[in-house]
Amino acid sequence: MGDTLGVRIRHLRETYSLSQKQLAEALSLSNVQLSRYELGSRTPDPDTIVKIAMFFNVSTDFLLGMTPSVKEPTPSYDSSESRVLLSRIKEVEGLEAFINSCLESPHLFQTLKGIWLVLKNQPE
């Protein structure tokens, strides 16, 4: 399982053209931890596996090797609009921490996603 998990994490990271440092920072991990996960010398705890799955929008079953494939992710974050959004998020005190806390809690993330879907469907 560790080998499959590490290979799949690395594959997803490379698909999104992320360095280990970038992904580690996004997941609030150290580079060393992420490297060990990718090499299969350590296995992340269940919460970290969920966080990785949510980050890449894949199932935990895929990461753990229980399903053979996943539709290739389409990297969309790497656009000028996304970079502007990220810089603006970092400008608002506390917003980045709030977003990170949402990513750490599957329940809070789903609640926030539900709110977004409601707002998205509201007429302007």
Q: Averaging pLDDT over every residue, what do you get?
A: 80
CATH topology of the largest domain: 434 Repressor (Amino-terminal Domain)
CATH class of the largest domain: Mainly Alpha
Beta fraction of the residues? under 5%
Give the biggest beta sheet: none
DSSP helical segment count: 8
Shape: globular
Known CATH architecture of the largest domain = Orthogonal Bundle
How many structural domains can be distinguished in the coordinates?
2
Radius of gyration: 15 Å
Ranges where pLDDT stays below 50 over 5 or more residues in a row are none
Tell me the structural class: mainly alpha
Please tally the β strands and state the result.
Answer: 0
The succession of helices and strands, N to C, reads: HHHHHHHH
Percent helix, as a range, is 55-70%
The CATH H-level homologous superfamily of the largest domain: lambda repressor-like DNA-binding domains
Description:
It is a single chain. This protein is mainly α. About 65% of the residues lie in helices and about 0% in strands. The protein is built from eight helices and no strands. Helix 1 packs across helix 3 (about 30-40), helix 2 crosses helix 3 (about 30-40) and helix 7 crosses helix 8. The relative contact order is 0.11.
